[in-house]
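Please supply some protein, with fold tokens.
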Amino acid sequence: MFFERHGGGERALLVHLEGSAPETREDPQEFLDLARSAGADVAHFITVRGHKPSAKLLIGSGKVEEIAALVKADEIDLVIFNSALSPSQERNLEREFQCRVIDRTGLILDIFAQRARTHEGKLQVELAQLDHVSTRLVRGWTHLERQKGGIGLRGPGETQLETDRRLLRVRVRQIKQKLEKVRSQREQARRGRKRAEVPLVSLVGYTNAGKSTLFNTLTESGVYAADQLFATLDPTLRRLEVPEFGPLVLADTVGFIRHLPHKLVEAFRATLEESAEADLLLHVIDAHSEERDEQMQQVKHVLGEIGADQVPMLEVYNKIDLLDAVEPHIQRDAEGRPVQVWISAQNDQGLALIGEAVRELLGEERFIGTLCLPQRFARLRALLHDAGAVQSEDYSEQGEILLAVNLARSDLNRLLSREGEQPDEFVARHTL
């Protein structure tokens, strides 16, 4: 990484600002969970109510003095604000507290840096970190500020800053080139899946909703899953066989969060495109969370940012084992289409209902059945095998070819039309 991270385990003081507008208000419990997920040892949690934002320090001077006293008395290493801080506000607060200060974005970036495992994930985190820190480079060179500016007064401080900025720009350009290559590779993989007519189903949802637990249970995988925010960062794809439907690719993606920093959305665009290009989204929801409705809205907001808000969606209400008298079930709309599935991934309750709902939502445009082909359709048999659509093959007593197939109905109609048959009549006449 271009910037080294602290080893963790720092004594931290958290500052939560009670916002007046609901759209800007943050959840204090989520803030605490984020800090703990980053490895902070939380010594104090300060709530600032009814504050008037200050351009210099964000909070009032009285509260600054109170926090500074706590920092000194308890040897606090780090002060974290549950809101966005400008670079100048960070520097001013650090000068007052005599310790490091970061905001909500910096905290989330730190968690992402800890969770990234793959080469792609590390590149995306580094890009977001560089973007965030680019406006904060001056912090390390304040002791040389007096040497800046004016003929004959341009000292090494300015030179060092310009060097850092140039190196940063070069590194950002290199990362973007590498991520563009990753995006191209992902696009090739998607085209390959589309040619093979293998649907892509993507798990999305608020962080810690249980996506990875559900993913592991359905695919028998070993993806890291834990009761913490952003346990999963790197996308994982697995092939999954759905009974009476066939194969699909299931993708586990990074969890969303309230007010997800825009620079993170941009950095992870290559990864999030898996959701935008999916045939179906499984929106995993923590049914037990008190913030359930707001979390659902935040997920839909991020999906809109990445252009995935028009992808068909099935809502999966998870953790029903924590609710009273709720059994696994499917809820349907007025037309009988599945819209919600209530399950518990942890206790393996109702998982078969997900397969049932997926079959209904994705199977409408697919033909799943047995074709009875006379011997003269040997070429059609070969084409179906080439398309990977044949699941099994047998012969009738009359010598006809019996093919159990699973493929898009449009592709079947196209292949049948080549043989001079009317697709609907052919399927009706030869389907068992």
Summary: The domain at 366-430 is CATH 3.30.70 (Alpha-Beta Plaits). Residues 2 and 282 are 36 Å apart (CA to CA). Residues 1-8, 139-155, 224-228, 422-432 have pLDDT under 50 and may be disordered.
